[in-house]
Amino acid sequence: MAIDPDRAFTPVSIAVLTVSDSRTAAEDTSGDILADRIERAGHRLSHRTIVRDDAADIARQLDAWIADPQVDAVISTGGTGLTGRDVTPEALERVCKDHDGRDIPGFGELFRWLSYKSIGTSTIQSRACAIVAGGTYIFALPGSNGAVKDGWDGILAEQLDSRNRPCNFVELFPRLREK
Q1: Predicted TM-score (pTM) of this structure
Q2: What's the domain range around 127?
């Protein structure tokens, strides 16, 4: 990480969304990992919830957080695989369209590259993705603990740190709603 010690750290308000038909709060280990890493990095955990694997339910929750001025970014875990119930990328696509947002293709590409180092060619089954919609960043990670660690430690910890050089997501916040 290229941290510039002369720059001020700006905490980001992050919501964590676990997408699952079977997990409860007591069993949400990937959500626990994200919440812990968010807070240890000095950011604010603004919200945390679990929704079922349903594109409309996921989109509805994301829409609510986009409308909430206390949420700068959302990190979801789960629902990015290839099965019929894995619909998180479709929900993000809907939210992106509804909010005149933008896809962040490099996120999924980099995630799969990092994940390849951990799980080899099995990473091809991941549809990890990211968008910016309504001025809010939304990152969709797979539901495994390893994937959450790869996504946070390898990408998001740096890009959500305002001191990261040569650039980071935080410095773009003031311009995300430009037309």
Answers
A1: 0.97
A2: 13-164
